[in-house]
Specification:
Strand content: under 5%
Largest sheet: none
Helix content: over 70%
Radius of gyration: 48 Å
Number of helices: 12
Structural class: mainly alpha
Oligomer: single chain
């Protein structure tokens, strides 16, 4: 009662001063409310910009992830959602939310979430496709730099089929039921690779073989054919096993060179007269006999040609065996010599240590 009365007295005594004090208090309250409203607006803008910036960063990174290939529909959604998001964020004003004002915070947030959802879906679809088509995508990446000319249309067609397959997987959000189509793409890639490898390595050798006279050198020609078949089988089985392919190619090229030389000699034999038959025999006999005499100082000209070859083979093997035995004997002689050198070095080292020790003792005295 006393407090109420005192308050009334104070207000009554204050008069106009009391009224002025009340108006000042009200102004302070209004200013505080304005600051709070401004702080809320600033926070809303800050929050919207932060979320939008996060989406923009993912969008920029996504351009390097090739989502347009791995998730084409999702990438279209992303582009559309990001464009809409940018427009709404640019027009967003928390203090202008009337009927004719800018977009509301909830509307802006919805579009940001749409863009984020589209990005997340693209990431998921790319992982799904990449895992399901791992081998096919790897083969396409491997073949693309090698394809040119006549093979380009085939690769383009395979790429189109692969893109259709990816689009269908994205639509279904699943790889179920696409195993056969995936296998067909893989088989087409393999066949294309085989044709390219055969074009680079197999076909040129076949063309060289076909230039030979098959009737003139039937045995040599058959040997080349057999080797060509081996090369074809190797390419079909493992077109990227370059080591095996190169090994067979070297053998085919040797066979082709041999075939050319055999052809030359057969033609020479066929052209000579019977009166010159002796020249043929002497040509080969003298060649082997001369080499044998130069190497072994032995005249084998009286032997048959087969005996000459046998003698040459036997003498050469004996020569190699003698050289190996000599090398082994020299190695055995080197062992004790090496041990003597080692012992001498050890003795010299010990002597040097002893002299050093004696010198130090004299210096100490």
């Amino acid at each position: 009662m006393k407090k109420t009365l005192c308050a009334a007295i104070i207000l009554s005594a204050a008069g106009l001063s009391g009224c002025a004090s009340t108006e000042a208090t009200q102004d302070n309250v209004h200013n505080t409310n304005d600051i709070e409203v401004m702080d809320e607006a600033a926070l809303a803008i800050q929050k919207i910009k932060a979320l939008a910036e996060h989406v923009e960063q993912q969008y920029a990174a996504g351009k390097d992830e090739n989502y347009v290939y791995f998730a084409p529909d999702s990438w279209k959604r992303i582009n559309s959602a990001v464009r809409t998001m940018r427009t709404l964020v640019a027009n967003f004003d928390p203090n202008d939310q009337g009927f004719f004002g800018g977009p509301s915070e909830s509307k802006v947030m919805d579009k940001i979430e749409d863009a984020q959802e589209a990005l997340d879906n693209a990431v998921r679809i790319k992982i799904l496709v990449s895992e399901f088509l791992t081998q096919q995508l790897a083969d396409i990446a491997y073949l693309s730099p090698q394809v040119h000319g006549q093979w380009q249309n085939e690769l383009d067609d395979i790429n189109e089929s692969t893109a259709d397959l990816i689009a269908d997987i994205e639509d279904d959000d699943s790889t179920d039921g696409y195993a056969k189509r995936s296998a067909r793409v893989q088989d087409r890639l393999l066949q294309l690779e085989i044709r390219i490898v055969k074009s680079n390595f197999y076909t040129p050798l076949v063309k060289k073989m076909k230039k030979l006279d098959r009737d003139l050198i039937p045995q040599t020609y058959a040997q080349i054919q057999q080797r060509i078949v081996q090369l074809n089988d190797a390419i079909v089985l493992a077109p990227r096993n370059q080591h095996i392919i190169d090994t067979i190619i070297v053998k085919v090229e040797d066979d082709l060179r041999r075939a050319v030389n055999v052809t030359t000699e057969v033609k020479w034999i066929n052209r000579i007269d019977r009166s010159e038959s002796e020249k043929i025999a002497l040509r080969y006999r003298d060649a082997i006999a001369t080499v044998a005499f130069d190497l072994f100082a032995e005249d084998i000209s009286s032997l048959t040609y087969i005996e000459q070859i046998a003698y040459f083979d036997h003498a050469l093997r004996n020569k190699l065996d003698q050289q190996q035995a000599l090398n082994e004997e020299q190695a055995l002689l080197l062992i004790p010599l090496t041990e003597k050198v080692r012992d001498a070095l050890i003795e010299t080292e010990n002597l040097a240590v002893t002299q050093t020790s004696n010198t130090n003792t004299v210096a100490a005295d």
